[in-house]
Amino acid sequence: MTDVVVVGAGPVGLAVGVVLAGTGREVVVVDKLAAGANTSRAAVIHARTLEMLERIGVSERLVELGVPAERFSILDGGRELIGVPFGGLPTKYPYTLMIPQDLTEQVLAERLEAVGGKVRRECEATGITQYDDHAVVTLESGEEIRTRYVVAADGMHSRIRDLAGLGDDTGDTLPLSFSLADVWVDGGLTGEEVQLYLANQGVLVVAPLPNGSFRLVAEVQEAPEQVSVAYAQSLLDTRGPGAGRRASVRVTEVIWGSRFRIHERVAPAYRNGRVILSGDSAHAHSPAGGQGMNLGLRDAITLGEALGTALETGDERQLDLYATQARAEALEVVSLASRLTRIATLPTALRPARNLLLRLLGKLPAVQRGLAVRLSAVRTR
Length: 381
Fold this sequence. Notes:
By secondary structure, the chain is of the alpha+beta class. Helix content is 34%, strand content 30%. It has ten helices and 19 strands. Strands 1, 2, 8, 9, 10, 11, 17 and 18 form an eight-stranded mixed sheet that branches. The chain has an eight-stranded mixed sheet with strand order 6-5-13-14-15-12-16-19. Helix 1 (11-21) runs parallel beside helix 4, helix 1 packs parallel to helix 7 (292-313) and helix 7 packs antiparallel against helix 8 (317-344).
């Protein structure tokens, strides 16, 4: 019998596996996909997450591969409304690290192998049966794996969560459509900060990526299935740094594009017997503030350590504490992301007044620092 089966080999599942394998536990990570992510998707790691990832020895490598953005700026065209510097935060990582999800997964997968673990791919978990002292995970092939605990890290549409009776049909799907694209550009954008443009035409996020490209995220009436160069260019021309003026930024290529809608949900409970939720299987929310993967990775480290304690001593109090505290933090993050999203997507008629208010608030150092603390999630005294 194995110690833990982790279902899902995204960043969260891999991180749980690293924690457990690194302390000598027998952990099996299974994933239905033949290979890991090959697109950037989540691309932000905040300071507190990097602090926690130090415990499994991957922060240094992530920083080497990523782009430290030392500032977050909220703008209206060429005018800054609020500047949020991270430099004064009490952390070893006074920045937002921009790094594509595929690189994050690569670093975690390499670390998992280094500590003696591995991922079993093309292995879809289709069933679970719980007993007093163990559980049995059934794979699509018919194979059964006996295990002390099961971690559901299989995403927003988690089958393991639902099979364990932890699913929840409540929650909101916001009537907003978002377009996402990673693009190459010629001139006009900075690689030193993340920029949020609050234009009358709508919101646009512009963020640097390690290879010199840029991530664009925009709320639109109806996002296209395929993002073209012309479409990406129109977003920058109407909402970005050159809005209303002759374009100073020229999009030369769309590397990858996608579209999505926002779901807001937190599972009613994170644990049922031998099954524990982590990451997107437990919570889903707006990408505003780049909190999703960060919350999941912090889940993973805390849960992995709690499982280690339970396996070593038989004392499950740390697991129960994880289930309670991680859910409480998720509720806070969902609330923050929801507020940021609603502010950014106010009705058009209210946007000039919103920007004027933000410009006034942006002059206050307390507002700047407060935003830096909330976004980075660092612990302050």
